[in-house]
Specification:
Layout lengths: L15 H20 L11 E6 L5 H12 L3 E6 L11 H10 L4 E6 L4 H6 L5 E7 L5 H15 L6 E5 L6 H12 L3 E5 L15 E3 L2 H5 L4 E4 L15 H8 L3 H4 L7 E3 L12 H4 L7 H20 L7
Parallel strand pairs: 1-2, 1-3, 3-4, 5-6, 5-8, 6-7, 8-9
Helix pairs in contact: 1-5, 1-11, 2-11, 5-6, 5-11
The chain binds phosphoric acid mono(formamide)ester (CP).
Length: 311
């Protein structure tokens, strides 16, 4: 079982064996979770702190569940009621948690690079739970596991990632992971939401939704991240849905057995039609959430193996 670092800060830099090992371990946790069993001795005596400076439903809850299923003591730090509100800096907050001998620190922050900065200042293994527009590595892992469960492989698949690519850390992590594992990645969206450096990412770029979806094995929809936009990059939600919202007509050009994904939270009627989001055979959105717990268990497991036994 190989992992190149004490931390998990990004998918970029991981090589196929690292990603393959994480996915294989996550698959075993997915089976364990479905069996109803736990493995509470694995992280016994370890402390996991969830430090979320941005809102989250799926990521924070699944890290909490993952930690508890492996036997860790899990603390969810509420940033809104912490001393951050009294002016304490990120680094001073991290030093404080470090002094409490935290083993695993999961952080989400609006600033790209915040988890990497923290990782240089604390003894704990740091896990990036989403930093600005940079990366969301565990989301890409759970997406890849979901795809692999449905398609049996990642290599050679055509994956269309659609919507607000510019502001999406999910898109960046998925692009790094899927291209590393041999998928053909297309990014699809209005020119205002395609990153300027798209040509360096090893993807094909489409501004016409139907052309981008043609023959795709996987259609991954993304939310408009209005909280990160500067200025009006999209005319209106109704206009966006007309050209870039996934409905039955647009999905019809993808492969008949293509799967539909969304990392959540969804804005129904903006980037995805409810009938597609809830489609009983094509939508795998619920399974993505399930795989999130398994992938986070795998990440905690692999990183904990590198921690000193007694801190
Ligand atoms: N996909 C995702 O990161 O969801 P949350 O913001 O709810 O954690």
């Amino acid at each position: 079982m190989s992992h190149p670092s004490k931390h998990l800060l990004a998918i970029e830099g991981l090589e196929p064996p690292h990603i393959g090992d994480l996915l294989d371990l996550a698959e075993s946790y997915a089976l364990l979770n479905r069996s109803g069993k736990t493995q509470r001795d694995l992280l016994k005596g370890r402390t996991l702190i969830n430090l979320f400076f941005e809102d989250s439903t799926r990521t924070r809850t699944s890290f909490e569940l993952a930690g508890k299923r492996l036997g860790a003591d899990v603390i969810n730090m509420s940033v809104s009621t912490s001393s951050v509100n009294k002016g304490e800096t990120l680094l001073d907050t991290a030093s404080t948690l470090n002094a409490m001998q935290c083993d695993l620190l999961v952080i989400r922050h609006a600033q790209s690079g915040a988890p990497a900065l923290l990782s240089q200042k604390v003894d704990a293994a740091v896990i990036n739970a989403g930093d600005g527009t940079h990366e969301h590595p565990t989301q890409a892992l759970l997406d890849a596991l979901t795809i692999r469960r449905h398609k049996g492989r990642l290599e050679g698949l055509v994956v269309a990632i659609c919507g607000d690519i510019t502001h999406s850390r999910v898109a960046r992590s998925n692009i790094h992971l899927l291209t590393t594992m041999g998928s053909r990645v297309r990014i699809v969206g209005p020119p205002t939401l395609i990153p300027a450096d798209a040509h360096r990412l090893g993807v094909e770029v489409f501004t016409d939704m139907k052309k981008g979806l043609e023959g795709a094995d996987v259609v991954m929809m993304l939310r408009l991240q209005r909280e990160r936009m500067v200025g009006g990059l999209v005319p209106s939600a109704r206009e966006f849905f007309r050209f870039y919202g996934l409905d039955a007509e647009k999905l019809a050009v993808a492969k008949p057995d293509s799967i539909v994904m969304h990392p959540g939270p969804m804005n129904r009627g903006v980037e995805i039609d409810s009938a597609i989001a809830d489609h009983p055979t094509r939508s795998v959105i619920g399974e993505q959430v399930e795989m999130g717990v398994a992938c986070r268990m795998a990440v905690l497991d692999i990183l904990a193996r590198r921690l000193p036994r007694n801190r």
